[in-house]
Amino acid sequence: MKVTCIENRLTSNQKLKLGIATENDFKYPFEIGETYTVLGITCQMGQTILEMPYFYIFPAPMCLFNIVDDRLSSYWKLRKRSEHGISFWPEEFYQEYFHDDLSDGVPEVVDIYKQVIKKLEEEFA
């Protein structure tokens, strides 16, 4: 799946719908007009969050993007995350402490992350 960034800040209305404080003026680290490979999708309490490549896995609301390649990755596995949430992630992302270890820069996990990005980008080339 590939998406193009159409906005990198949420509107007040989008913040209200997503339950984000309206005074928060966070700028997402994506360039408007750039196309990105989606690493995974999380659906939680009616919200759709894309897992985007950055220095680590970066969640971003779907409303910031247009879908330009609607194929789902063959590497994604569906899992129930909570009573109200599911995720479509590569198997590697489900490893215990994967996200924490990636944020902490654990070399083996960073290597796995880079391999996942590579295979997803090759799949959608």
Q: Main attributes?
A:
five-stranded antiparallel sheet; alpha+beta; 125 residues; single chain; 3 helices; three-stranded antiparallel sheet
How far do the termini sit from each other?
10 Å
- Helix-residue proportion: 10-25%
Whole-angstrom Rg: 15 Å
* Class by SSE composition: alpha+beta
Overall morphology: globular
Global mean pLDDT:
91
Q: Low-confidence segments, ≥5 residues, pLDDT <50?
A: none
Total helix count?
3
Order of SSEs, N→C? EHEEEEEEEHH
How many structural domains does the protein architecture include? 1
What kind of sheet is the major sheet?
5 strands, antiparallel
Beta strands, count: 8
| Strand order within the widest beta sheet | 5-4-3-8-7
What percent strand? 25-35%
Question: How are the elements arranged and paired?
Answer:
Elements: E1 2-5, H1 12-18, E2 35-37, E3 40-44, E4 47-53, E5 57-61, E6 65-69, E7 76-82, E8 85-90, H2 98-103, H3 107-123
Antiparallel strand pairs: 1-2, 1-6, 3-4, 3-8, 4-5, 7-8
